Amino acid sequence: MKKNITLLLLVSSALFLFGCATVGNKFNVSAISSLEEGKTTEQQAIMLLGSQPTHRQKRLMNAPNPESWTKGDYFLGWKFAQGNAFGRGQGASLVLMFDNKKILKEIVSQSSINLTH
């Protein structure tokens, strides 16, 4: 009986520890409201969000307002997702457009989700 309880505790602990998955870099979602278009620099955005972007690209397919792009504009994106075996998780994404002077031009998209069961 004691061996069964020990085995059950070991299996439960393993599921708890290894039943989680994380993708991307967690960032401070509440800091998005502090970003100011036309003022915030790339370095300030990274500092406020608390992590490096997960991707950088010159053009973003299907981005809104393609007519607002000018030469040298680029996009930085942050993505984060975490979940566990018990159906709980959270995630967030953010895409920012910067001009060639590294000044925030537009918050292109943002989303976040929190799942609990």
Structural summary, described in words:
This protein is α+β, with helices and mostly antiparallel strands and 117 residues long. It has one domain: 2-Layer Sandwich (Beta-lactamase Inhibitory Protein, Chain:B, domain 1), CATH 3.30.1450. It contains 2 helices and 5 strands; from the N terminus they run αβαββββ. Strands 1, 2, 3, 4 and 5 form a 5-stranded antiparallel beta sheet that branches. The model has no long low-confidence stretch (mean pLDDT 82).
Can you give me a brief rundown of this structure?
The chain is an alpha+beta fold. The protein is 21% helix and 35% strand. The two termini are 32 Å apart.
Question: Layout of SSEs?
Answer:
Blueprint: H1 2-18, E1 20-24, H2 42-49, E2 55-57, E3 74-84, E4 89-98, E5 104-115
Antiparallel strand pairs: 1-3, 2-3, 3-4, 4-5
CATH architecture: 2-Layer Sandwich
Alpha carbon gap, first and last residue: 32 Å
Number of strands: 5
CATH structural class: Alpha Beta
List key phrases describing it.
117 residues, alpha+beta, Beta-lactamase Inhibitory Protein, Chain:B, domain 1, five-stranded antiparallel beta sheet, 35% strand
